[in-house]
């Protein structure tokens, strides 16, 4: 009985999270922090004498230190890109380059890029008027256009930092952020293209016309001269990625003994500073604020109000993410990791590694179906599996693939308890039945494709 006690604690913790969110309609932060306290009370006492409630607060603080600054800065960047017209410029460039004939690919590409620094609901709100405008000119393919936006936005939202879910997974699993960005994008890209082809298939099966959506007024499009240039618009996205990736590359070359070691050693202290996610996002935030200030000729007071509005939305995400981190740390205290690890044979490393990928995918999918939030599913699952101290030796490949498998699972099973479902349904003018026949299977396709790509990459490029 005692050897199964950690699983009893795990079941109680998960039931607390899901029960409070689904049945009591409690905010995810309160559900996660309550579950953390429940698990802490049921788990063993700390060896260092810290009381059970205090260690929850310490774990919460540790989680905030890992992701709090980045999420807050990403929220500001996203808000500034929307208000300055930088996001609009990126979208118009995609459409101009690819043309009306390939508009679905342009919309997917726009969603794919913009959902990295901007939350999915904001991206969809930005791009849905373009889908409606394209339908007015072509009189066809409306469903394909809105599904293309969803495919691009949803996939990077769940796989590429600094969106909160992937960021928290990287922190929980000890994955280098630059590596998470690169591999996440690598896994997301084929899934997005498969999503486009599925959108074309669904569009042929369901001839859905565009309908008026009274409760969502479409913003007036900005004039061309009111938008910043493409290079300026891309800076807040591209520059931090380059800075973080540079640090990852230098560290990887040093660790592998590849390249000019003396030069790499000399630049390593510099890249470790500029490649720190907090610093890189701070530079991007400063650039995005300057762009907004110059483009809209704002007063400093109005610029400050914009930052405050962005931080209000980012603050909620920080609380939820850190609450999930605290929940995961309490599961570690309760010895969940060794108990789960004992269920798997490690005689064959590759088989054990694949088992972990399927386990992460399955738990994330189960949590997504149950409570509706991809972010909560990613945070909770990665925190749970982090209790097993997974590493390259145990898995047979880099833990980044475990993160992408969890992200893939968090896409599965989106239905009426998912806010993304309602955003897609109501803002595009679809009925609930039409959304269940289009949005739900689209995310299933995205998730399964991402898992397949993850498994393939873990075999051909384990990076261990």
Description:
There is one protein chain. This protein has helices at 5-22, 28-42, 52-84, 86-98, 103-114, 120-138, 142-159, 164-173, 177-205, 230-256, 261-274, 277-296, 300-333, 336-341, 349-371, 374-386, 392-395, 400-409, 419-428, 432-460. It is mostly helical. The chain has one domain (4-460). Helix 2 packs antiparallel against helix 3, helix 3 (52-84) packs parallel to helix 12 (277-296) and helix 13 (300-333) packs across helix 16. It is globular, with a radius of gyration of 22 Å. 52% of the residues are buried.
Describe the SSE topology.
Elements: H1 5-22, H2 28-42, H3 52-84, H4 86-98, H5 103-114, H6 120-138, H7 142-159, H8 164-173, H9 177-205, H10 230-256, H11 261-274, H12 277-296, H13 300-333, H14 336-341, H15 349-371, H16 374-386, H17 392-395, H18 400-409, H19 419-428, H20 432-460
Helix pairs in contact: 1-2, 2-3, 2-13, 3-8, 3-12, 3-13, 4-5, 4-10, 5-6, 5-7, 5-9, 6-7, 6-19, 7-9, 7-20, 8-13, 8-16, 8-18, 9-10, 9-18, 9-20, 10-11, 10-12, 13-16, 15-16, 15-18, 16-18, 18-20, 19-20
Subcellular location: Cell membrane
Membrane topology: Multi-pass membrane protein
InterPro entries: Glcn_transporter (IPR003474)
